[in-house]
Write a structure and sequence with these properties.
503 residues, alpha+beta, Dipeptide-binding Protein, domain 1, D-Maltodextrin-Binding Protein, domain 2, Dipeptide-binding Protein, domain 3, six-stranded mixed sheet, four-stranded antiparallel sheet, 11 helices, globular
Length: 503
């Protein structure tokens, strides 16, 4: 009966968990879903999510059931209502409004810290994201610390119980010196390094030329000179859409390092060696390599690639830029007269939809290498409207397989992230989604009070995402219809179920 009542092509019918409550004891109701959409549709809202523009109607069926009508199908529908806004809130100031998470804000010391304390009347006796019993942490101090040396000193002095940082040999040595007082774990992070080909370059538009690079570059040796110095078991990244921590990850890139075969490709395609460098169709096989000048690992990649290619008669000419200059439209988004190969990283979002434009033909905001495959684009666009998560993942993996088999780029590795915590604290697990390492904070055990380092003083806008400091604090305060585990699986939190209805 409800399906026939869907006024558009597709609707979502949410059934709210009976026990779900706000921190003031009020039940979570259908009106809170209405309020959340209204808040995001407010044109004056600073952090509004434009995804909610696809919501055409939010209709309460009863207090615990709400039907959400969408203007079209879209694959990221589970990201809707990731933070619920209370309909009875007088403002969206999270220091005053009711919240659904296990903690509430108790103090804010400008320039120093934000303190949250356990809600003693939280609506569940188990962590809805892990199923574990609630932990013993009663208070969390989010302290603002951006300087690495100060942060390490605070960890050593017991002033900080948990932090995330980019590892280095010096940092690991200092942590090892602390003995059993701290625990740390290095995991593949959300930033992934790759080598892009500029497909508008006449030579690089030829598949055999890209194949030559693929055969000449020793990716395994690159990992030995970069991430494996800190994470000896690090594996190369073989997917450009799903990161290795996702359950949807499949390997689509195959190493076939064979420098003799690479040089033979040059010979077979009529190239002749002129001194140290081959010449093909009147053009020297010399390519401008664009990257940043601030990253030792990228310098190591450059040196390794230059040696690999130089050995077969291909020249690499470095063009290293300051990061602020690198990301400008005239440089990174420049034509093949600016660069032919580029080494940099993308940040993987909690969902591949954030990078959808990378795979679209034409002048998209993310397609910096100008690769175009109508077949890949068609699959990515179809995935954007596929409501079934498994079918969507299959489409994206099929698109990635074609993308990488055509050598649109060469994926390298995920940069490792370091999660450090006090030995007495139990439960922290790396999670590189929007919830960060605070995703399962409800079940942490140890001392009743802990301090968590965040890099800056945040603006706690409950509508906004993308600020890692704000996301960590908000992950303790505001839960939504779904949460996300470290493998990027959506898990129901404030809802019992959701049903997809078609008109």
């Amino acid at each position: 009966m409800l399906a026939s009542g869907c006024p558009t092509e597709i609707c979502l019918l949410y059934t709210i968990a009976d026990e779900a409550r706000w921190s003031d004891g009020e039940p979570v109701t259908a009106e809170d879903f209405v309020a959340t959409v209204s808040a995001h549709k407010d044109p004056l809202a600073s952090g509004r999510d434009p995804t909610y523009d696809l919501v055409t109607q939010v209709e309460p069926i009863d207090a615990r059931t709400v039907r959400v009508a969408l203007s079209r199908t879209f694959g990221t529908w589970q990201s809707l209502f990731s933070r619920l806004i209370p309909a009875h809130a007088e403002s969206l100031d999270v220091t005053e409004m009711p919240v659904t998470g296990p903690f509430v804000v108790s103090q804010w010391v400008p320039g120093d810290r934000i303190v949250v304390e356990r809600n003693p009347d939280w609506w569940t006796e188990t962590d809805p994201l892990t199923g574990s019993r609630l932990g013993t942490i009663e208070r969390i101090d989010f302290v603002f610390l951006s300087d690495t040396e100060e942060l390490l000193g605070a960890i050593e002095g017991g002033e900080v119980d948990l932090a995330v940082m980019r590892p280095s040999a010096e940092i690991l040595e200092q942590l090892d010196d602390l003995g059993d007082s701290v625990v740390y774990a290095s995991s593949p992070g959300p930033f992934w390094e790759h080598i892009d080909f500029h497909h508008e370059d006449e030579m690089l538009s030829r598949p055999w030329v890209r194949e030559m690079f693929h055969l000449a570059i020793d990716r395994d040796a690159i990992l030995d000179e970069t991430v494996r110095r800190l994470a000896p078991t690090a594996s190369p990244l073989n997917n450009s859409i799903w990161m290795s921590y996702s359950d949807n990850y499949e390997s689509h890139y195959e190493d076939r390092y064979d420098p003799a075969a690479a040089e033979q490709l040059l010979i077979d395609n009529g190239c002749a060696r002129d001194g140290e460098v081959y010449e093909c169709d009147g053009r020297a096989m010399s390519f401008v390599w664009l990257s940043t000048n601030d990253d030792p690992d990228r310098r190591a990649v450059l040196e390794a690639v230059r040696d690999d290619l130089g050995a077969i008669g291909v020249e690499i000419v470095p063009n290293l830029r300051a990061p602020s200059d690198f990301v400008t439209r005239d440089v990174l988004f420049g034509g093949p007269d600016v660069w032919q190969l580029a080494n940099f990283s993308w940040r993987a979002g909690s969902d591949p939809a954030t990078a959808e434009a990378t795979y679209l033909c034409g002048d998209s905001d993310l397609n910096v290498n100008r690769y175009c495959s109508p077949e890949v684009e068609s699959m990515v666009r179809e995935a954007a409207t596929e409501m079934d998560p498994d079918a969507r993942a299959d489409l994206l993996n099929e698109a990635d397989g074609l993308y990488l088999s055509d050598l649109a780029l060469i994926p390298l590795y995920q940069k490792p992230e370091l999660l450090v915590w006090s030995a007495g604290l139990q439960g922290p697990t790396a999670n590189f989604t929007r919830s960060t390492e605070m995703w399962n904070v409800a079940s942490w055990t140890g001392d009743t009070s802990v301090a968590v380092a965040i890099p800056s003083e945040p603006v706690l806008d409950p509508l906004a995402t993308g600020d890692e400091s704000a996301d960590r604090v908000l992950a303790t305060l505001l839960y939504g219809a779904f949460g996300m585990d470290p493998s990027l699986n959506h898990l129901p939190v404030l809802i019992e179920s959701v049903e997809i209805l078609e008109r």
